[in-house]
Amino acid sequence: xxxxxxGSASKFADPGRKVVAxxxxxxxxxxxxxxxxxxxxQCPHMGGxxxxxxxxxxxxxxxxxxxxxxxxxxxxxKMHVVCPWHGYEFDIxxxxxxxxxxxxxxxxxxxxxxxDVIIELPDVGEHAKQRAEPT
Length: 135
Prior knowledge:
This protein is mainly beta. 4% of the residues lie in helices and 48% in strands. A 3-stranded antiparallel sheet has the order 1-9-8, with no helix packed on it.
């Protein structure tokens, strides 16, 4: 594993994202409500650039007391990133697909030291061994 400083925490938009090329793969770093999250930029579905899609609030159905639908609304607390290839969505805080918890982005260790955002890169061989299989 190797640590890489990817920039100043204060320069990230909130919510925001930065995709950085590292050796043979890309890492996406998200800032959401002051917290940082990092993932390998590879969709577990078909290997697309999952973290480069739109960032949107999760769509939630509002259920009335009588168990009928009152319609849909955007979540005030959950943000998703949508893979631009096939529309798979992932929770930015967890990397998990909301409908299939087995489909998830690979987390990358991230830390803030002072004002520096530092990611810990997996070894290139480790990345190849742990590639996601299509679901």
